[in-house]
Input
Amino acid sequence: MRNLTVYDPPMCCSTGVCGADVNEVLVRFAADLEWLRSAGGVIVRRFNLAQEPSAFMNDTDVLKAVSSQGTRCLPLLVVDGRIVSRGAYPGREQLAELVGLPPAGRPLDAVAS
Output
């Protein structure tokens, strides 16, 4: 089973629905993460820099990226201990590819071993 950890930039929440303006990208990304959990059996953890800074400090590669590039490198996506994406929230197809799953809508048994 794959592990995906998302390190979000500082924000009030990760859902995208707080405040007056709904952030459609965050809403879509949250739904895509839920799809990964249920359809792909991926273990997903998510940390927000404003609320859980210790998680950023406890991962050497994440700390190095934030220290050298600042928060512009966020979000960072880490799959099984390796940074696989930085600076943007990937769509469902790209998320599936990053964790080794077939694109949405294709059967999970189509994953090459």
User: Anything to note?
Assistant: The longest strand covers residues 3-8. Residues 107-113 have pLDDT under 50 and may be disordered. The two ends are 12 Å apart (CA to CA).
